[in-house]
Specification:
two-stranded antiparallel sheet; 38% strand; globular; alpha+beta; six-stranded mixed beta sheet; 155 residues; ASCH domain-containing protein; 8 strands; PUA-like_sf
């Protein structure tokens, strides 16, 4: 099993309707992928209309089950593995994968536009309790004890 660190609220969104993760390189790996919520909050993500729509949908579900309207900031967790998805495809952007697929983005603080690769995610399985774990950049292998816990979700 491999893992991917994703900034919040994008990591939350993967378990709330987001089926495309945007990256800048093609990967050969296919299979179970642990989603790790990084330590940073993406200001761009918090202002993104796609996230706002997912939050409104999530809030309606919580209220429909008798809960109070939650705030996204209160629900976000950091430095934890949230769950597992299946990485089923990885392809360069071709104007596809709406609404989550992006075409290009500007690096943090720079002017360079980077081409985007779409990671196609299926079957999100959220853990009952997130697992604290230090993340890494790129595609990485979780520690053996965490992998053992996550393999329960891949069956």
């Amino acid at each position: 099993m491999r893992a991917l660190t994703v900034q919040q609220p994008w990591a939350w969104a993967i378990f709330n309707g987001k089926r495309i993760e945007n990256r800048t390189q093609l990967w050969r790996y296919r299979g179970p992928l642990a989603i790790h919520a990084g330590q940073r909050l993406s200001d761009r993500g918090m202002g993104d209309e796609r996230i706002h729509r997912a939050v409104r949908h999530w809030q309606r579900g919580v209220v429909a089950h008798g809960g109070a309207t939650p705030l996204l900031r209160d629900a976000l967790e950091y430095g934890v593995v949230l769950g597992v998805v299946d990485l089923v495809d990885c392809h360069p952007d071709a104007g596809c994968c709406a609404p989550w697929g992006e075409q290009a983005y500007v690096e943090h603080g720079g002017r360079e536009r980077r081409r985007i690769t779409h990671l196609v995610l299926e079957r999100p399985r959220l853990l009952p309790e997130p697992i604290p774990c230090k993340g890494l950049l790129g595609l990485w292998t979780p520690p053996a004890d965490i992998t053992a816990q996550l393999e329960e979700l891949t069956r």
